[in-house]
Each structure stands twice: as C-alpha cells, then as structure tokens.
Amino acid sequence: MAPKWRELADRIAARIRNGDYAPGERLPHIRELVEAGAGSKSTVHAAYKALEAEGLVTSSRGHGTVVRSLAPLKRLGIERYDKAKWRDGDQVAFIADRVASGRAYRRNEQTQTVGLVAAPPIVAAAYGVPSGTEVYARARLVKEGDRPTHTLTSYYLPEIVEGTRLIDPNPGPAGRGGGFRVLYDAGYEIDHMTEELFTRPAAANEVALLQLPSSEWVIELHRSTYTAEDLLVEFAIGVHAGSRFSWRYDFPVPDSTANKGRQ
Amino acid sequence: MAPKWRELADRIAARIRNGDYAPGERLPHIRELVEAGAGSKSTVHAAYKALEAEGLVTSSRGHGTVVRSLAPLKRLGIERYDKAKWRDGDQVAFIADRVASGRAYRRNEQTQTVGLVAAPPIVAAAYGVPSGTEVYARARLVKEGDRPTHTLTSYYLPEIVEGTRLIDPNPGPAGRGGGFRVLYDAGYEIDHMTEELFTRPAAANEVALLQLPSSEWVIELHRSTYTAEDLLVEFAIGVHAGSRFSWRYDFPVPDSTANKGRQ
DNA sequence: TAGTGGTCTAGACCACTTC
DNA sequence: AAGTGGTCTAGACCACTAA
Fold first, then answer.
1. Which of A99, A225, B100, B117 ranks highest by number of CB atoms within 10 Å?
2. Do B193 and A81 touch (CB under 8 A)?
C-alpha cells in the first residue's frame, strides 16, 4: 500500500492532468486540506513536495502553491549555427533568433565574464593538453527576458584567441557577429562540430543561478568546434534547465563497409 | 540561513565527494546521527532524502543508506546503427555491442510485446495520419544483465510491416538481424534518421519498470528512420534512465548560403 | 498584520531485511 | 527478534508575501 502522502499526491496529480486545476491556478492551501481531514500538515506538505519534484506545481512561501504552466520545449536544431547568421550578417546567432521571432533584444539578456583559468580535466582532455594548463574561459548566463535559461562557458587555447575581441574583459554580448565571427576574422573558419549531452541533478549553485524548481535536473552539453583541418578552436560546456529544451539531430545511417569519407 | 537538513546534507555530500565515505560504504544510521545531536529523526531523514535526490546515495529499508557507486555513462554514438551490424552480419545491433565489449549475450536481456494500437498523437503526427489510426507497436524492455536500462517502443504503419517477422507475436530478440534487417528484407533499406531528445521526471510506472532511484529523471528519445526516398518506415520512442547514458552527434556547420543539398 | 509555505521536534508505529 | 529506513501526528515556531 502506497503511503498516504503518495496517494494524496496522485489524486491531485490526476486532477491537474484532468484540467480540474488549470495552469496558473492555486491549489488548496495546506491548512485547508489538513482541516478537510487529508492528514497532518507534514503529510500534506510531503504530497505537495512530491508534486513539485514531478514538475507539476511550484510553491512559494507567503504566496501559495500554483499549477505550473509549462512552456513548450524550445527545440534546438543545428541550424542555430548557420554560417549565414554570424558570417554574413552582423548579429550574434541568438539575437538573430530573437529578431526572427519578433521579440525585442534586451541588453542584459546575456552577461559574461572572461578570464584565464586552469583547464578543468574535461577541457584539458578535449584539447590534449595537461590538466591545469591555462586557457581562456568565457562564461555567459543566457536569459530569455527575465528568466535565465542556460549557462554557456567557452574554453579557448590562448594562442588562438590572444589579441582578439573574444577576451576583451568588457565586451557587449560577444560583440558584432559573436564568437564564431571573431574566430573567422582571426583566420579560423569553423567547419564541423561534435555535441555530447547527458542529464544529471542540478548542483546547488545552478539551482540558484538558473532559478530552477527544487530537484529539477539539468542537461549538460559539451560542444567541440573544429576547423576544416580538424583543429579544435572552441570547447564549450552548456548547462540547460532540463524542462525547457529539446535537441534534434539529423544524420545518415552509417555504413562502415562503404567508402564515403567523413561520416 | 539554510535549513538544518540542508546543512547536514551538504556536510555529508562534501565528505562523500572528498572520499571520506567511499562508494558502496554505509552512511551513519539515522538514529546514530540523532543521538549525536544532528537533529530529530525527521530532520536527519530529510537530509538523507536530499542526498538521494541528488544521486549521491541510495537508501533501503532494513538495510541502510549506502554511497552510490555510479557507473560511467554509456556513450551512445550513431555508429550503433552501422549497416554492417544488421545488414551484413546476423546480429542485432545491441548484441554486436555486447560482443564488441566482451560481455556475454543472455537471452532474456530483451523482452518484447507486439500488437496493434491506436496511434498516440506524437506517432500520428510523425506519420502524418489521423490520431487514433491503428499502427503496430513493438515494445521492448532492454536490460544489461539484471538491470533494465531503457525501454524502446517502435511504431510501424501496417502496410509496411504486415506479413513480416516484425509483428510475429512470439519472436526472439527481434530475430536475426533485428528490425532494420527485417525492413531491409522487405525492400525498405533505411538511409537516414532524426533523433530528438529531452529530459523529464520519471513517471511512476517508469520508476518501477526501470528500477530507478526515486526522483531520478529520464531521457526521452524520439527516433525517426527514413529510406533514401524520405519514406518514414519506423518511429521509435525510447525512455532511458537519466544517469546511465550520454549521446554524441557529429555534424557540419550549416551554411544556408551555399548549395550543398541535404544538410 | 494576517496568511502562506517551510522547518523542527518527540514520539508512536509500520515495512522490510537480516540473522 | 532485532535493527533498519519510512510514515505519521500534533503542535510550536520561522520566513516570506501581500494588502
């Protein structure tokens, strides 16, 4: 037999999915359910906490517990890296997205810090340098309006970016054309990429930074960007709120018995 | 100021990451910490529950709370679909994986059920048929040894698979060569795919089926497989334990201003 | 200031594992 | 039977929000 708090949570969850409680609507207050005989305050609270962990509601002190209105997933495809957006135009890719969708660009939607750091193990491995080698880290917090959606930290080898706008400590949102444009102007035209992604529980600082509902997971994305000569020019780590994005990839079915060059 | 249970959880988490508590080792029993003055039983329990939600420990009644030994992520690349594995050989792709990694194949590592069902909305949309149209669903639960790792449900249009081994109600693990081989023999050679993935909280039945630690999230994968003529011949939905897999994709940087045909 | 969710306690009891 | 984590209660108090 399931615990009392689980049964209560399931009953409420069913009513939410059924539409009895609409998105944005307040759930009954904890004390109301206690008086109605649903159990002690702790028990009802446990049920509400479970609903929050399942992404159905969000609670806030002094306010109440409301049904979460989950925005549809933002679908990310590789077209977001289209050369036309950063090479030919003069807009950072993410700004081009905003313009295309008719939303206004706001200056504070991307903040960043740039500096030399000791390469974390993963970064060192990607570049094939000893762990602890100094590399440039360019960290951004990307927002959609007021809500942060993900962090993105790019790592560069100093010999590649030294002297470019990329490591200007006081840039705008990466400046005209974005990071890929800067690399292009420096003689490194990007050609192909690898993305690797997985999910994990959010760390405590990420919960605060990304304003995540407690117990939400994140997607961590590792992006390697190469020139046509297979030179790695950027290694980036993104941390995305799990409930806000999906990723989409197209690829041919591999055939190791054929000679087609790059797969 | 952080709650007492949060501070306790953070102290223990730090000791785990520090190696004071090794993977597989038992944490102090709840009543021990209560006697040691860490707080009431509920408070200590809350701390342990938080550690469990963060993937650091697993608790079990009658046994204790042990530090979780997390296996490295299994990295999935598109080479798992290599034609050589299912067209030329006689092994299901996942068996070929096992052979390559030196593990024994066990008959019960994949179970499946096959039948006609009303197409769920997503499936109907993928095939461009009305929602509720009857399609074949082939559901597998894939295990690694005793532990289930993911479910995979393939949906097919009846006119494509009718009369093939794919819908044999009593097949082995998809039979010789797997599903792609059956389609190949039926005149549908697969050519390219699209994968879309996102994460979400596990549903209650998935927690049971995949033996997930409570509050773990899952990755849901939507795979569309096409012939060279862009005919969709399989739409599959996978549900993977979030902590066990990563996905990897390689792709060229798109250039919409060039004429290169398929991106 | 009133009302909300969140924390904490002390103790009783339950469900499960191990011996 | 003994010992583990899990549930539940009743009530006190805290932290935050809104009018």
1. A225
2. no
